[in-house]
Amino acid sequence: MNFPSLSDIRAAHARIQSFIHRTPIMTSSAINEIAGCEIYFKCENFQKVGAFKARGAANAVMKLSPEERAKGVATHSSGNHAAALARAASVAGIPSYIVMPSNAPEIKKKAVKGYGGEIIECEPNLKARETTLEAVVARTGATFIPPYDFMDVIEGQATCALELLENQPNLDIVMAPVGGGGLLGGTALTAHYINPEIEVIAGEPTGADDAFRSFRAGHIIPQTGPNTIADGLLTSLGKLNFELIQAYVDDILLATDPQIIEAMRLVYERMKIIIEPSCAVPLAALLANKERFAGKKVGIILSGGNVDLGKLPF
Fold first, then answer.
1. Which domains does the chain have, with CATH numbers?
2. Is the pTM value of this prediction over 0.85?
3. Which residue numbers delimit the Tryptophan synthase beta chain-like PALP domain (predicted)?
4. Engineering a disulfide at 81: which of 77, 173, 245, 261 sits with its beta carbon 3.0 to 4.6 angstroms away?
């Protein structure tokens, strides 16, 4: 597989400038003391649409031909990719068609509508999502932009680690959560190009540990019946993402839901910023394996902050 080069990732970063924030990197001496290492948090919870997904969606939209753009874009997603694609389409002045399961959170549907996306509801299962999407694409001629298993999206997500390593080039370890693997794959690729000595470690919930099991088995083991508070990490690993993870990721560490909730609460209390449960997973995994990180400089991508404040787990 031909992965994007470092110059491709830099070009993507230039391409999406008008669509994204360069998010801040924050530290907390209190959390450093608890963790026994120096942590640099790359705050994608402050990104447009409240998540790193803004990057990949914008890159994919901007790489379409004028003819493709005219017909718009489509995807199926119950979460941040839905809002990210609707917003990228809105900024580019093109239509978006978003297939969402009927049980998708109201806050996510509201976001998609707010960005001008047309929502097409379906039954809450993968088969229904895929068949509904096929019908939408057939009807509109829109281009399907997958949420993570798509090189233009991965290339966009890789720009997050690019910013992190431009600001903090001397990191020993970079961490990201893993669900479908778009953020982790892009992060690992960027780190490999900029400094192959940097370790790339993912955090994953024990209740949705398909990446952990796949990584160890050397082949994709599909996600079945995931059960975790980290609702952004329920999906199975993408094929392209798994290739990148196999090539450039050093390890995947697990965290339980109570550990995830504790890490999430720690960030709220000590840093006064809002993060969603999926976003807390790498910190939770680090705190569960402190000896592994002792005295190291660790960059953690805080992936997003889209959480229903009426349903906080603490």
1. 6-52+150-311 (3.40.50.1100), 54-144 (3.40.50.1100)
2. yes
3. 17-304
4. 77
